[in-house]
Amino acid sequence: YEGATDGGSKFVVAGLFARRSEDIYENFRWYNPVTIPTYNIDQSDKVGTFEWSRPVGTAWQLRAGASWQTRDYAVIDLLFNLFGGQPLDYTLIEDTTEKGVWASFEYAPSAALDLTVGVRYADFDYTDNETRPFMLAEALPHGSRVLPRFALNWKPADDWTVRFTAGAGYR
Fold first, then answer.
1. CA triple 44-46-51, angle to 5 deg
2. Selection from 100, 108, 120, 92 nearest residue 152 by Cα
3. Do 68 and 99 touch, CB atoms closer than 8 A?
């Protein structure tokens, strides 16, 4: 939903709910005509966002927002369980939640130049029932973080844009 106020503020409210339940079949050899189910995935995603913006003068824009996102994920990987010593019906369960608020200031002194400075406060929560830490390539997010952002866009010609962006984040 999008809206505006008489004072020039704009706001956007959005939400999403998605669910997936799927069996994935694989054939491991080109000469083997048998395709077997190897994965069963059950996933649920929920997202909610709110964004507010307001011009301040002719060159400044103030933006702020909040977001909430959660994913519940369960997968049975038959082959991984078989060769990993788990019961065949062992289900990997992952639950992630991210909540955050953010604010940014945008300054556009001309059509060819704009500068953005912002900050996001994010709270991550990740839980799973995985007991093999050697399987993780990197540390999973947990706890609260302040994530700064800086961006400079310069358009020297109609067909060219030079961008410089710096910040911290997690994906």
1. 160
2. 108
3. yes
Cα R_g (the chain), whole angstroms: 23
pLDDT mean over 23-34: 70
Tracing tokens 């410089």 back to the chain, one arrives at 164
Contact 10, 2 (CB under 8 A): yes
Burial of 76 (0-12, 13-18, 19+ CB in 10 A): buried
Rounded to whole angstroms, how far apart are CA atoms 81 and 38?
Answer: 10
120, β-bridge pairs: 102, 147
Residue matched to tokens 């990197």: 138
- Say how many CA atoms lie within 13 Å of 35 toward its Cβ: 5
What pLDDT was estimated at residue 140? 63
| 112-141: pLDDT as tens digits | 999 999 999 999 888 877 655 555 555 666
Q: Which of 164, 165, 126, 161 is nearest to 147 (CA)?
A: 165
Residue-wise pLDDT tens digits, 47-87? 999 999 999 988 999 999 999 999 998 988 887 788 878 88
